[in-house]
Amino acid sequence: MMVKGNILVADDDAAIRTVLNQALSRVGHEVRVTSNAATLWRWVAAGEGDLVITDVVMPDENAFDMLPRIKKARPELPVVVMSAQNTFMTAIRASETGAYEYLPKPFDLNELLNIVNRALSEPRRPQGDAQPDEQPESMPLVGRSAAMQDIYRMLARMMQTDLTVMITGESGTGKELVARALHEYGRRRNGPFVAINMAAIPRDLIESELFGHEKGAFTGAQNRSTGRFEQAEGGTLFLDEIGDMPMEAQTRLLRVLQQGEYTTVGGRTPIKTDVRIVAATNKDLRTLINQGLFREDLFYRINVVPLRLPALRERSEDIPDLVRHFFKQGESEGLQTKRISSGGIELMKRYPWPGNVRELENLVRRLAALYAQDEISAEIIEMELKTGAQPAVPGGSLIPDDLSIGQAVEHYLQRYFSAFGGDLPPAGLYQRILSEVEFPLVLASMTATRGNQIKAAELLGLNRNTLRKKIRELGVNVYRASKQA
Ligand SMILES: Nc1ncnc2c1ncn2[C@@H]1O[C@H](COP(=O)(O)OP(=O)(O)OP(=O)(O)O)[C@@H](O)[C@H]1O
Known about the structure:
Homeodomain-like_sf; activator; five-stranded parallel β-sheet; Rossmann fold; transcription
């Protein structure tokens, strides 16, 4: 159902005013438009309008500076903020200053109409306190692609809540970074952020790590120990690789989520807990549920807000920003800042990045550390990316079809050594080359068996546990198709 309202529009761009005026009037709203902040403020102060749509940067005032005043004068007036500066911080500021919704420009008119309709039909209540916060000097998340815009908006919304967030995405897409941002910009920022990686802890110790144990609870438990839940009290607990959580620990976790309390291993007294849970996985939990390895009821409890981080190849337009960001980071640690030639950037945009942002970060650091020249040429990028390139890349392979594996490696090594002139490459070459061959091998086998580890192990002639270990070490990820968000 469409609710009609009186809408105030402020934007110094006449074309946007016209478009909004027409679109909103057509569906029956009353619309008033202005090109400046002063007029908008006059209307708002006079009690006019049921909803405001405003641009951020206007000639006389920035909407973010005006928003606290609007919220103070008219706490129930929803304000939709539009901006062409589509960064993480814009979304965060919009949310912190109490904007109803943030829309990166260019926006979709239908989306805007939906937001307007939603804002006008929701029961009126004041949203979020305006808290004029100091701007952090650096942004935690880099990238302005449409895919990242969606993430920023979702994050901005989630920061004002304590809802459980479930982050999915391939290895290296920034799941941990996002979990930290949720904490550091959210309302629990003054509490602790505690991270625990289920894949990195021996399975039989996970329960005790999470919930703590009493003295003598099991062999080797010589003292009482606090768990991560207790350490995270009042803050955020990040459960990384939650798909690797053993069943018993899952049962305990479910109880915490249902009842807000838990007992330590070997303990009797229930302990109340106030912890926000953020979980992450690069596995498809639905597959694990089907295999009986993950509790379905727990899944529904933690999948309250699913957030799917895009793979880097789905947002290759962010690569130049990321490259600049990582060179700058390296610079603050004493590495040389460099540029990558436009041809080099093009190659990087076509590369599939199986290790996602982490792989890109490593490459940029390697370039900063290993090469003397200011501008990194396309040839160097081609050579550096070559071992990771997979034959079936859309847009063309970098390796000729008729090359054997041995020839390809030989070819790579020749160019690799020559890139160092007379010097030797860094130590550890044997393992590096082997794992670069292992990666595509394991990935191809897992893809061919559609992620079935038993079949892939058989195909490779490896023990299942060995394969599991390799998958983890190499960061192989085959659950590409799990679209959830
Ligand atoms: N949008 C981004 N902007 C800047 N840096 C990023 C971004 N995304 C990821 N990174 C960087 O890439 C690296 C990998 O990110 P992170 O560890 O958060 O990934 P992950 O998805 O948790 O990986 P895994 O599943 O392997 O644990 C980190 O160094 C992180 O700082």
